[in-house]
Automatic annotation (TrEMBL):
<dbReference type="Pfam" id="PF06855">
    <property type="entry name" value="YozE_SAM_like"/>
</dbReference>
<dbReference type="InterPro" id="IPR023089">
    <property type="entry name" value="YozE_SAM-like"/>
</dbReference>
<dbReference type="InterPro" id="IPR010673">
    <property type="entry name" value="UPF0346"/>
</dbReference>
<protein>
    <recommendedName>
        <fullName>UPF0346 protein GCM10007111_05160</fullName>
    </recommendedName>
</protein>
<feature type="domain" description="YozE SAM-like">
    <location>
        <begin position="3"/>
        <end position="68"/>
    </location>
</feature>
<dbReference type="InterPro" id="IPR036806">
    <property type="entry name" value="YozE_SAM-like_sf"/>
</dbReference>
<comment type="similarity">
    <text>Belongs to the UPF0346 family.</text>
</comment>
Amino acid sequence: MRSFYHFLMTYRGSKQVDDASRLAEWAFADHYFPKQSKDYDELSNYLEWNSPFPTALMVFDDLWDTYTMHDD
């Protein structure tokens, strides 16, 4: 399974900016984002301490569901 970061990068460069693409752009620019992680708790904790916008954790949870369902 690829890392969550790798999955998240599929949302970068969207012509229609939404919260998923905002999160992807932020993670790309954040040098400390856990780019190799496949662990929900590690990523969730990181976002709790470094949330780039108010709904980022909600967006992450939605994307995590998609990641775990479709990224085997």
